[in-house]
């Protein structure tokens, strides 16, 4: 994992040590502002009155619920030298006796100039940095971390601005927005430049572009990952959403990057490349699926949690690139990171080498406490992201896949059923829970996600609703067997859960780790196996079934005995039993039919009959089906190898830890025991009868 260099975490705003003061009159002249009051010098800017300091300019913007001008007196008391606001804000300030004489700069739409004004106050810091901006729906954070690693490998002193954190040459500052507000961003750039940072990698959200938070930034390189449905509560349409992202590339935009690097794997990426092509520099294209300036030639190898591909650059030279993250989309993220950093002046071999050990917080982040299944936390909170991460994890396991997810309140409502549908298509167990309900009733949000999940005709498995997020994660952990995958989706790196205006401490990674540790500390449960000798005949098989049922009753295993949510089941896996009494084939078929019926009458949960070319075995299977009308729950397999393959490919028909199984010995028993121990990784206890 790439770690920041030694530094401390500062809970308050980090400020540059040296800033040259700027006169309010100079700001007024430079940005077309009206100056009301005495001219004063300012050396900082903020949108939050509580963060104002001596010599600060307080930006008092109109809001949905209140006007920032109502806090002008608080900012002045903290030392603010002036206020930037609109005409309505000026009127409010002049009506407040505690702020009436403060100097005010007025603009009809102050947010439109705030970025440029903030940059001027802090000395236009991004002009002294190589600034790389990354926009798109998914992959911004991962691409930013990959680019940071590539740049550090090349010896750059790097700043990182993103969803998870802001790094200022080793000092980590928590961040709640993908892109900070303009005054905070320019202040951070000033600190970075002051501390020797030469290159900054930052995520650029559609809100930041639309609201002018990145106005005043000089982007050397702009990257585009992809676009899928998100934030339609704000942008209303996908075209409007795209238009906001395109501000990083389009000619005439104040935030246009000098060089664009665009992943063209989707139609929106191709549109972004077209937009960028209308500017001064030809865009650099990236693709994992087709021709581009940077492309994937072939996959070299795929290991657990990583993948190596052969990539080709603009000059045709080929390089092996190892991505320490699973999923085709992470190959795209890595290739975009390489393209951007090479465009910023790094060597391709150095950039690729820098990727090898990157770990991204909350992005396919493994949580390991010695469990025999994969447990992962991921930030996927959009339909396309949920679909992609489930496909990635599903391709890496032969076991079952569970996902715990919800949807955020006060956000795009249209994506909620789409997320549920994506989960139902990709997982064997979907647990719908609360994400960050914010001000909405949590049950209403869950209902929308559940509606989408239940609308899927080809849903793979079970769908549950558990509102409490910890309880939902616990249910998934309890459900998992060796070889399975549990995905906790939606919150990723976040350390709080916002409910009705209150942010409660909650970290999916921490909670999942605690529950895994609790499971590990519980008494271990092995797959217990009883073996019946097939040479001893059907009577011996009947006695073995009775022994199985008695042991199940003693230990609370099986549908007839378990209580609560325990999932341990009883199984019988039989082939043909020998004729020890010299009976003809018809009589033996009747005996095996009766054996199948007995298994069902004694409430054994699952039966698998092995040997579909043998009449007696078919009779056993038919007896079980007729007695219980089980249908697909009573399985007929052709051979021991076919039975093993069935267990391998149909996880719902595979015994797990804590289950109780009666098998016929000989070739069938040997094949099953070898599979459970060597491939499924189960602890197996052979029970002596």
CATH class call of the largest domain:
Alpha Beta
Tell me the Rg in angstroms.
31 Å
What structural class do you assign from the helix and strand content? Answer: alpha/beta
| Main beta sheet | 11 strands, mixed
Spatial shape = elongated
Oligomeric organization of the protein chains: single chain
* C-alpha termini separation: 51 Å
Which segments are poorly predicted (pLDDT under 50) over 5 or more consecutive residues?
1-11, 562-566
Mean pLDDT: 91
Specify the CATH architecture of the largest domain. 3-Layer(aba) Sandwich
Helix content: 25-40%
What is the CATH topology descriptor of the largest domain? Answer: UDP-N-acetylmuramoyl-L-alanine:D-glutamate ligase
Number of domains: 4
Number of helices: 22
Spell out the CATH superfamily of the largest domain.
Mur-like, catalytic domain
């Amino acid at each position: 994992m790439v770690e920041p260099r030694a530094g401390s975490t500062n809970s308050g705003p980090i400020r540059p040590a040296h800033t040259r003061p700027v006169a309010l009159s100079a700001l007024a002249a430079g940005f077309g502002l009206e100056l009301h009051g005495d001219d004063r010098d300012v050396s900082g800017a903020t949108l939050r009155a509580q963060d104002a300091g001596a010599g600060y300019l307080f930006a008092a913007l109109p809001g949905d619920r209140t006007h920032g001008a109502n806090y002008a007196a608080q900012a002045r008391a903290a030392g603010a030298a002036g206020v930037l606001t609109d005409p309505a804000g000026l009127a409010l300030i002049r009506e407040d006796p505690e702020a009436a004489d403060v100097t005010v700069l007025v603009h009809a739409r102050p947010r439109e100039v705030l970025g440029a004004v903030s940059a001027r106050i802090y000395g236009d810091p991004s002009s002294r940095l190589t600034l790389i901006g990354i926009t798109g729906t998914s992959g911004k954070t991962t691409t930013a971390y990959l680019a940071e690693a590539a740049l550090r490998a090349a010896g750059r002193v790097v700043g990182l601005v993103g969803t998870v954190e802001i790094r200022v040459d080793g000092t980590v500052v928590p961040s709640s927005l993908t892109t900070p507000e303009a005054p905070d961003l320019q202040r951070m750039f000033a600190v970075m430049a002051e501390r020797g940072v030469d290159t900054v990698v930052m995520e650029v959200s559609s809100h930041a572009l639309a609201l002018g938070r990145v106005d005043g930034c000089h982007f050397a390189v702009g990257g585009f990952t992809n676009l899928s449905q998100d934030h339609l509560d704000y942008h209303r349409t996908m075209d409007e959403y795209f238009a906001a992202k395109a501000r990083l590339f389009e000619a005439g935009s104040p935030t246009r990057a000098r060089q664009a690097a665009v992943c063209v794997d989707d139609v929106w990426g191709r549109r972004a490349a077209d937009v960028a092509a209308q500017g001064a520099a030809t865009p650099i294209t990236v693709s994992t699926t087709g021709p581009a300036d940077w492309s994937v030639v072939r996959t070299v190898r795929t290991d657990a949690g990583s993948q190596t591909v052969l990539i080709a650059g603009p000059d045709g030279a080929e390089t092996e690139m190892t991505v320490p993250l699973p999923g085709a989309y992470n190959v795209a993220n890595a290739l975009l990171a390489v393209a951007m950093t090479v465009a910023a002046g790094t060597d391709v071999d150095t950039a690729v080498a820098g990727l090898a050990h990157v770990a991204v917080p909350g992005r396919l982040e493994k949580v390991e406490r010695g469990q025999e299944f994969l447990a992962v936390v991921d930030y996927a909170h959009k339909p396309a992201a949920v679909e992609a991460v489930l496909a990635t994890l599903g391709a890496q396991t032969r076991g079952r896949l569970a996902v715990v997810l919800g949807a955020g309140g006060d956000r795009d409502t249209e994506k909620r059923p789409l997320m549920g549908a994506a989960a139902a298509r990709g997982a064997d167990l979907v647990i719908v829970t609360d994400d960050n309900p914010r001000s909405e009733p949590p049950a209403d949000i869950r209902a929308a996600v559940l509606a989408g999940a239940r609308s899927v005709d080809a849903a793979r498995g079970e769908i549950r609703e558990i509102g409490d997020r910890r309880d939902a994660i616990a249910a998934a952990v309890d459900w998992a067997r060796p070889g399975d995958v549990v995905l906790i989706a939606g919150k990723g790196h976040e350390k709080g859960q916002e409910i009705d205006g209150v942010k409660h401490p909650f970290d999916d990674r921490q909670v999942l780790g605690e529950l895994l540790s609790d499971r590990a500390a519980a008494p271990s449960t092995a797959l217990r196996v009883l073996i019946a000798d097939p040479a001893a005949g059907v009577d011996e098989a009947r006695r073995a079934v009775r022994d199985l049922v008695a042991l199940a009753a003693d230990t609370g295993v099986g549908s007839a005995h378990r209580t609560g949510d325990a999932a341990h089941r009883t199984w019988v896996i039989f082939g043909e039993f020998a004729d020890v009494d010299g009976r003809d084939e018809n009589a033996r078929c009747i005996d095996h039919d009766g054996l199948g019926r007995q298994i069902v009458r004694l409430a054994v949960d699952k039966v698998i009959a092995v040997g579909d070319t043998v009449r007696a075995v078919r009779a056993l299977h038919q007896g079980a089906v007729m007695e219980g009308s089980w249908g697909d729950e009573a399985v007929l397999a052709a051979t021991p190898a076919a039975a093993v393959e069935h267990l391998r490919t149909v996880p719902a028909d595979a015994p797990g830890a804590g289950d109780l199984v009666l098998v016929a010995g000989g070739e069938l028993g040997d094949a099953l025991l070898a599979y459970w121990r060597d491939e499924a990784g189960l602890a197996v206890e052979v029970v002596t009868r």
